Amino acid sequence: MKNLKIATAQFENKSYDKAYNLRVIEKLSKEAAEKGANVINFHECSITGYTFARNLSKQQMLELAETIPDSHSINVLISIAKKYQITILAGLFEKDHEENLYKAHVCVDETGFVTKHRKLHPFINPNLSAGTNYTIFNIHGWKCGILICYDNNIIENVRATALLGAQIIFMPHVTMCTPSTRPGAGFVDPELWKDKETNAKQLREEFDSLKGRQWLMKWLPARAYDNAIYAIFSNPIGMDDDQLKNGCSMIIDPFGDVIAECRSLEDSFVIAELNPEKIIQAGGYRYLEARKPELYGEIISKAHKSVQKVIWR
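Structure tokens predicted for Nitrilase family protein (313 residues):
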């Protein structure tokens, strides 16, 4: 495998405004390609918007969602990928021909549609069905996976994706700055965003606090370290419906180190060059080799009813 340059992006999406969001995706993809990126990853539901969907009926969701890959938004993504010779990952709501609804994240490149992942743990709208498969695919010789937001909170999902061969896991999110039972959690006042230049210092303090980045750093680097993978975390910046999000899109290497991170309050991206040697050098690679599934295989696979509670809802 050759080194791979990946960009992770953050931007302020507009709810239900696919045309606007796709224009921003094109702008950032173009700029990333000009700076040498081979791949760019955008946040969860970056094409459609996300949080506003909690109030939609099934009919409204069906009007918003698209079939994949035969849809307008996917065709637009493919045209952008062809134009700038860059692989693009972005998210939207999906519907199938039986009117089942899913949360999807897709990958396209200059040759067309590559793959999609359906979120395994959706919750934003009760009409969404859960995905039932892990997703493994290739980008320029690297084995990759996708896990969407809450999927990454369940450690077995990251381990299973790594065991299936993933060396890179794309982790699109819409997260942080919401209430929780954990200490320090809570919303960030949307009024601060109305004059973000004047309030930049206070916004950065809030975004980096336990409401945001400090919480993220308690667990996200461990996902990369324990599984010897590169984690490509993407998250929106600014207002998503009535909630203010803190961005902090970042790339974490197999040592658990942040090697690139968006620190701007603007629509932006950062690029990191991924080196395959780090995967083998990292402790997680050795720990994967040292596993003894005969001790815990039956414990992990024991029947269990999944109960998912999202406190801020």
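The two ends are 43 Å apart (CA to CA).
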